[in-house]
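re the bet — no i am not wrong, look at it urself. input seq straight from the record:
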Amino acid sequence: MRLSLAALLLTLVTAPAVASDISLQWPLDCSLGDTCHIQQYVDHDPGPGSRDYTCQGLTYSGHKGTDIALPYLSDMHRGVAVRAVAPGVVQGLRNRMPDIYSTEENAAALEGRECGNGVVLRHADGWETQYCHMRQGSVQVQKGQQVQAGTQLGEVGLSGKTQFPHLHLSLRRDGKVIDPFAPKGAQDCAAGIDPVSSADATTDAASLWTDPPVYEPGGFLGAGFSAQVPRFQEIKSGEASQIRMTRQSPALVFWAYAFGGQQGDRVRLTISGPTGVFSVHEITLDRNQAQFFRASGKRLNDQIWDYGRYTGLAVLLRDDVEIDRIEQAVSLR
C-alpha cells in the first residue's frame, strides 16, 4: 500500500532524543533579500491569533514552517534548487503533482496532499525536516537514500496548497514542531519591538541556522512601468516586468510589488520625468496582506510623452518608519 507524505510523517519511528541541537544550512540556491524572501515564519501564538518569533506579523494562525518564496513565477521556471539543510536519510517523497495555484475549485483534490511534491528527511537524534511545494518532476532523490547537507533534493515549485512559488520548510523533533529561528520559543512580546532595529538584526543566538538570516518585516519584491494598471497575476508571473513602454503609450503607470503588508502601512509612489516630479500618490493598506501591489500614474494628455528618462520611487512606511524602498526607471525614446 502506498502511503501519503502525511501518513509517512505519522508512521516515522524516531530515535530517542538526546541533548543535541541540529545545525541547518540555507535550503535554496537564492540570495535572501534579493532573489528570494521569507514570506511566513512559524506561528508562536497558541490561540486564534498569530505572531512570528519577533512578535510581528509574518505568519498566520497555525503555520508550522518557514516559507521561503521567489518573487515571480518566471523565477520558478528558470529553476531554483532545493537542498538538504543537514545530513539525513530520505524517509518519503512525492513528485507528480502539477504546479498550479490552489483555488476553491481544486481544494478537494488537494486535501491530504497540501504539501504538494516534497521530501521528508530523517536526521540524527529525533530530528526531521520536510520540504513542500516542489516543482513537478524535479525531485532527485530516492526513498532510503543517504544525503549530505547541500545535496539537491529538487526545485522550488507551485504544487499543493499554495498561491506563490516557494519552499515550505518544516522542522520537527520527535514529532514536535520547532522554529529554527527560535527553538526555545518566541521573545517576550509584552516588551514590544522596534520595526527599524528588527529589520537590521539577525536572529537570536539560539537560532539553529549555521548562518542566521536577517529578519525582514516586509519589503518590495519588484517594481515597473506599464501602459495601464496591470493585473496581479501579470505581476506575480513576471509578465508585467516585460512590458515595453513608448512615447505613445496611453498612460504611464508605476507599480510596486511587496510582501508582509500590515494594516495601516503606507505606500508612497512618486514619478518624476525630464521636467521633474509630476505624480505623488500615497495609499494606506486597509488590511494585512501577505503579498500585494499598488500602482499610480498619469494618462497621456498630449500626443506624445516628453523624450527622456522617467523614474518611479516606492517607499513602504510603517508607523512613520521607512521599512523599504525601491526605484525603477524607464527611458522613452
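see?? Helices lie at 5-11, 73-78, 107-110, 195-200, 232-237. told u. also The chain has two domains: 5-200, 219-332. so pay up
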